[in-house]
What we know:
Layout lengths: L1 H7 L1 H18 L4 H17 L21 H17 L9
Helix pairs in contact: 2-3, 3-4
Amino acid sequence: MNNIGFALIGVPFAVLFGAASVSAMSARVFPRWIIWVGFLIVALNVVKLFTVFTRSGGFAPGGDLSIVPVVPIWVWTIAVGILMIRGIKSPTASS
């Protein structure tokens, strides 16, 4: 059950990062590379759903390659956190 749960958690992650990437793309608040990392996260988590059917090997739930979809999530979260702490640099209006 734990392995299946780990594989199925990819659906909410795909929806979350897909919505955040589309929103960031339309608002143009983050650099393009962060948006593309978000779309990479979506793709990897959708592919992770198919690991439910694999019983052994690296692609099986809990296998050696099961960490691959998690690493871009760490990169995206840390990068967005840093950008949000630094703030958006907008030009100031002179009076």
